[in-house]
Amino acid sequence: MKKLINNPEEVVKEMVTGLLYAYPTYLKKLDNVDVVVRKTSPVEGKVGLVSGGGSGHEPAHAGYVGKGMLDAACLGAVFTSPTPDQIYEAIKAVDGGKGVLLIIKNYTGDVMNFEMAKEMAEMDGIKVSEVIVNDDVAVENSTYTQGRRGIAGTVFVHKIAGAKAEEGAELEEVKEVAEKVIKNLRSMGMAFTPCTVPAAGKPSFTLDEDEIEIGIGIHGEPGTHREKIKSAKEIVAELMDKIVADLPFNDADEVALMVNGLGATPLSELFIANKEVNEYLVGKNINVYKTFVGEYMTSLEMSGFSITLLKLDEELKALLDASADTPAFKQL
Amino acid sequence: MKKLINNPEEVVKEMVTGLLYAYPTYLKKLDNVDVVVRKTSPVEGKVGLVSGGGSGHEPAHAGYVGKGMLDAACLGAVFTSPTPDQIYEAIKAVDGGKGVLLIIKNYTGDVMNFEMAKEMAEMDGIKVSEVIVNDDVAVENSTYTQGRRGIAGTVFVHKIAGAKAEEGAELEEVKEVAEKVIKNLRSMGMAFTPCTVPAAGKPSFTLDEDEIEIGIGIHGEPGTHREKIKSAKEIVAELMDKIVADLPFNDADEVALMVNGLGATPLSELFIANKEVNEYLVGKNINVYKTFVGEYMTSLEMSGFSITLLKLDEELKALLDASADTPAFKQL
């Protein structure tokens, strides 16, 4: 295992330290728990947004803590849900009197722990709501999930719910717009190579030299199938056929598009994929309103990518366009 | 070779197409050459900034074209200098009447071709100056270079010279501040794994399972030596010893810091490296004014990273803090 680490057991702790060194004006850490919150938390009169999940998906989620997006990110061990205790501390730290929305990716452990924390906070009299993101159309259930998995599309939920909360909206309104995003959000990914969880020390699965996995999850969970490597155009078409048919996205729809690298795929290749996605969408007369190409939700050093489409209306466009200032997502 | 591409011969062309699909409000492409310029080019009354180099270093350099940074990026084939013709077209396209500054990374081919283009543009009566970035302290000469190589520190030259040009400064003033950055800029990198140029189809070098290369260049050019893998703390100390001693950076200096991923190294590991760099600097009483952690100048899917320090004064701090709005570098 070739990794830029000191000790496999200390990666999350040391990563958080490095994160705080990098962004002292944006972030602070809560005492005794791996929870990162806005420097200014709690923001009075604003609904607090809490997300998080296993580590290994950086910049998700700590990179999205800041103005216009999240208030707190709970960092679990690599590919492991944060504990109820962590999440409970996060909720308390960011409640500015208007309640807290939990944005949960749909994994069994995450949902269980976030909901347990919600109950704990409610016993303290804090208003807490939750939304569960399940944008991955690849498989209906998976290794760690009942129902569909939550993957990179979650970043659009952070962005849009974050903008709504920043406007001073009430908890119910923020939840409602987050639900609207989730309802109109579809993603799917694939991988060329696996990744290695530091504490495991070896790849979580193997792929032959000419083999790819379609529909893989962000923890390397199996997708729909494996096949021989093929061109970017063919790979994109396979993912897009499934994504577009699912909602479905229709003629003249306007969408936000994310082409998300899983870790080791060069940006140049993500742009080639973006070309193919755009040409595919032109063929369907689906209009791209705004595009995001880069590493938004990774899977350590996995090589591969995912595509996310979000169907937009005027409200979602305005919230997507609102300014944001976080370590990993800035918009002027 | 497992890559998200269609045809190894078409990667740059298709990447540019994908780039333009992603950032239609930021960028436009010149006819018949792989040159990307600001949508608003030329900007009247502003010195034009032109950079570029081989492709494969994304987001460098096209990702830095926009307000507060570059006016044009010339995209060569992968790891190959752009042609004089390309650069000449870029200069003509961004000259807003105040002249053009070329920001060249020190590689023999790049320097030759940028200088040839400079002469061509001067014959047209355009005022052109140049600066050559040579921040890499690893080796004095290398495979493609007389003198030191230009690597990730180049992004600080783009940022600071870009901010100066945006203020309406004259060509000589922009050149002068770029020279000041270069004089105070030092970088060094290392690699865990090689990368594969698409047209070559196989890795440009090999490293054993437990072997790393110290001082490697961004095209996989040999560094100072190979050694057995060691901890992040030890790797950082080895790079920092050489960087800090070189300028030298001294007690009570203020610096900008960049921890730059070369392609496949997870952001979590870059943050661990950032922790080590900061702790090293605390030990030397060198103060970090601002930190950048991420993929700023890559080497396709190489695993590894580089560290850059820039010694700051009040002028450089103000220019570094100025707002910027480009596809890959945004600052509010």
UniProtKB/TrEMBL annotation, chains A, B:
The keyword Kinase applies. PROSITE patterns: DHAK. One of its GO terms (cellular component) is cytosol. This is phosphoenolpyruvate--glycerone phosphotransferase. It comes from the Bacteria. InterPro entries: DhaK_1 (IPR012736), DhaK_dom (IPR004006), Dihydroxyacetone_Kinase (IPR050861). Homodimer. The dihydroxyacetone kinase complex is composed of a homodimer of DhaM, a homodimer of DhaK and the subunit DhaL. Its EC number is 2.7.1.121. Residues 7-329 form the DhaK domain. Coiled coil: none annotated. It catalyses: dihydroxyacetone + phosphoenolpyruvate = dihydroxyacetone phosphate + pyruvate. It is an enzyme of class 2 (transferase). NCBIfam families: dhaK1 (TIGR02363).
